[in-house]
Amino acid sequence: ELVESGGGLVQPGGSLRLSCTFSGFSLEDRAVGWFRQAPGKEREGVSCISSDDSIIYADAVKGRFTISRDNAKNTVYLQMNNLKPEDTALYSCAAPRRTGAVVTLAEWEYDFWGEGTQVTVSS
């Protein structure tokens, strides 16, 4: 099971930290991805951290978002700074069934998904 938390309403320029906590399987040997879906739009990849700590970001969030992991807590974080109204979306984390040092934002690589946490950026 994957459970996201940390979403909320924030003004433009503000920050939020999302958490994705795993239960039932180990985070340590898997990639974890963050995705988002805005109303009326398709889901898009935001960031991924692999089991060997390789990281990728979507161009839209580079320089503003930071992904990290705490294997001891079985949790992955997404620190979001300088938030913009276009960052408003439902943010979900996901993990693949297979283990290994894969780093990807391709949705089809992911098998387990959380329900998401809403992020709204508005003044």
State the helicity in percent bands.
under 10%
**Percent strand:** 35-45%
Average pLDDT over all residues: 95
Quaternary state reads single chain
Low-confidence stretches: none
Largest sheet: 7 strands, mixed
Got a strand count? 11
What does this structure look like?
- The model has no long low-confidence stretch (mean pLDDT 95).
- This protein has strands at residues 2-5, 8-10, 16-22, 32-37, 44-49, 55-57, 65-70, 75-80, 89-95, 112-113, 117-121.
- The strands form two sheets. Strands 2, 4, 5, 6, 9, 10 and 11 form a seven-stranded mixed β-sheet that branches.
- By secondary structure, it is mostly beta strands.
- The chain contains no helices and eleven strands.
- Strand 7 (65-70) and strand 8 form a beta hairpin.
Distinctive features:
123 residues; mainly beta; seven-stranded mixed β-sheet; 0% helix; 45% strand
Topology overview:
Layout: E1 2-5, E2 8-10, E3 16-22, E4 32-37, E5 44-49, E6 55-57, E7 65-70, E8 75-80, E9 89-95, E10 112-113, E11 117-121
Parallel strand pairs: 2-11
Antiparallel strand pairs: 1-3, 3-8, 4-5, 4-9, 5-6, 7-8, 9-10, 9-11
